[in-house]
Specification:
single chain, about 260 residues, mainly beta, nine-stranded parallel beta sheet, 3 helices, globular
């Protein structure tokens, strides 16, 4: 993907970078920079703190393929933008905390977890609107099969002086067999001139769609696979890191083979 390893001093200018998160890191995206960063989790616990300076834009991919406990804390300054994608395909405890600390800051996160067998994973996304005129969008999808258990917890916090906040949060999930998914989106609002919404669904596969595909000659396993692929494809195709789409597609396809 034409990326470079993240420098040791972790001051990021414009460019494409990657990081295997095996230890705690503090990263600064320089003022006005246009940067791309892919973070791949190693096993164990790790904290990554990212400060996006004024007017900078960061496209961020967080790929979880091993048993890990990771927290990514992101602070976005005035006029800064963070467009993030998170894909979880392993037992893990993942937390993203985004704080919008400068006016006209923006945070977007599209994510998906795919769990099979006896996987157990939890995803937490907290978005803190600390000042006025900021925007956030969170959309997270979950798929679980076998005896897997997944959970999503999302919180949008709006501080008393964070007027004109514009925030959306959505959690959509599909369970197969005896798998379980729990979802808990929350709003905590202390300002009176805001536009905030949230929603959550947990359901089984669309049996009519599966029947339709089987009537056209597909076996049951293939029909189910295609429906799940369609469910998560938009997260992959709209990945914040376009150069990693092929890699993410391969990781997801390998996991889907175990559904």
């Amino acid at each position: 993907m034409g990326a470079q390893p993240l420098p040791a001093d972790s001051n990021v200018a414009s460019g494409v970078w990657w990081l295997v998160a095996s230890e705690d890191r503090n990263i600064v995206v320089s003022e006005g920079a246009n940067a791309t960063l892919a973070i791949f989790d190693a096993e164990g616990a790790v904290d990554v703190n990212i400060d996006i300076m004024a007017g900078a834009e960061l496209r961020l991919l967080h790929l979880v393929t091993s048993h890990s406990a990771a927290q990514i804390a992101i602070a976005v300054a005035e006029g800064g933008v963070c467009r993030a994608t998170e894909i979880v395909v392993a037992p893990s405890d993942t937390r993203v905390v985004a704080s919008l600390v400068g006016r006209d800051a923006r945070f977007e996160l599209g994510g998906a977890f795919i769990l099979t067998d006896e996987d157990n994973a939890s995803v937490t996304v907290d978005v803190n609107h600390m000042v006025a005129d900021c925007t956030s969008r969170t959309s997270y999808k979950g798929v679980a099969s076998g005896k897997a258990h997944g959970s999503f917890s999302g919180l949008v916090y709006v501080a008393p002086n964070a007027q004109h906040t514009d925030s959306e949060q959505l959690s959509r999930n599909i369970t197969i067999g005896d798998a379980r998914i729990e979802t808990l989106p929350q709003l905590e609002i202390y300002a009176d001139d805001v536009k905030c919404s949230h929603g959550a669904t947990v359901g089984q596969m669309d049996s009519d769609a599966v029947l339709y595909m089987r009537q056209r000659g597909l076996d049951l396993a293939t029909a189910k696979r295609l429906q799940i692929e369609g469910f998560v494809d938009d997260v992959i195709l709209h990945s914040s890191v376009e150069s990693c789409v092929e890699l993410v597609t391969e990781v997801v396809a390998e996991k889907l083979n175990r559904l």
